[in-house]
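Worked example

This section walks through a single chain of length 447. The input is the sequence exactly as stored; nothing has been trimmed or padded.
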Amino acid sequence: MNKKKRWIAGAAALVLLTGLLAGCGGNGNGNGSSAAKNESASNGGAETAKSPVKLTMWGGVPPESGPQEVIDNWNKEHPDIQIEYVRFVNDDDGNLKLDTAMITGQDVDLFVNYTISQASKRKDSGLALDLSQFTDYNIDEKMGGDAASWKIDGKYYGVPTTKSPFFIAMNKEALDAAGLPVPKDWTWDELREYAKKLKGSNPYGFIQNMEPFVDPIDSVLSQEGYTKADGTSNLDHPLVTKWLETLNTMMKEDKTTPPLGEQLTSKMPVEQVFLSGEVPMLNIGAWLLRSSNNFTDFPRDFTIAFAPVPRLVDSADQYVTRGGLGDYISINAKSKHQAEAWEFLKWYSDGGMAPMAAGGRLPASKDANQDDALNSLLGDKRDTYDLDSLMYVMFDNTTPTYVRSLPQEVMDLRAQEYEKYFLGAQTLDQTIEAMVARHNTFLKQNQ
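Given that input, the structure is written out below as tokens.
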């Protein structure tokens, strides 16, 4: 059974268990305004012209990190369309909760996709509205060339609303003490040397958030191809081997980064470890700002500098980095208020989302006021950041980007194998062989 069939079967079973199947038939046709009128008529006019339309938006960011302020601003300005924000945790369980809510006809008018694979799955299941019916907002023109990475079968089923940079956060004072500049272009070999020089009396010189942990592989294979010309797995690409060897050496020989087993079993709070000054370099994304601006829970006495994620390829001209745009907001194809949801989504994308910058989410639209967003991003902590390097990774780095689109099954199978390698349970050759074999099996099953 392929991924789509398994997901649909699982969701259907959950619907039956919750006894909500009768609610599945939500109105999935066209214009929200006409749907609202039809509903009003069927209710004997219970919904009058003076009653506000009520929308529900589901997202993964805690309300206090920007979403609630965004919603409050909209609701003050638009008494005729009132929006409620519902937070879901952006993990497997949270995304299943969102999907189930939509399938069972619960109130979901807008929702945020955090990966293209999630958005594609929802489009295939008839849950994401094709936005090409709206002709008053040019997504490509507003968001620039990176927006095209979010097209599904050549169309937009959501609006990519944020800049999504990933970077290496660095303790600027530690760099200065070691005589090291803030890099603007570097390799994983150079990062390894930085980690050695920065470790000093610290437990490690470098730590990683697990979300972007595997990005170096995808930065290569998103360009070279996850499969070869003959259709077989490309997970034995030489640079995949190089990444595995480099990190394993840093873990076991240099002892400059935590052994993966230790990090996973201890559930190491890497943001806290970095912000406490224990480790001077952290691989992470823009959501770090949510914590680094919070001096109550994460007090720090150092300046944070920012460097691009290093490359595995020799030539900078061949390098692409993960990033581009994110927070792909879709309208539920079953929503009764699609027209109103579209009005909100345009407003949100063109600057209404500015308070989201407090959590590291900068608006992607060329028509958004970036000064407002930057003020929200930095607040009164501006002096605690190296602004030159921050502006570089957020705005000025012109390295091409990719959006990870690999099926979750492949993400999982390769993680299971490289974890065995980092844990010492199998050799490098055995790891590559196992990844390739399992990937080939997946490819055959999904032809």
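What to look for: The first helix runs from residue 3 to 18.
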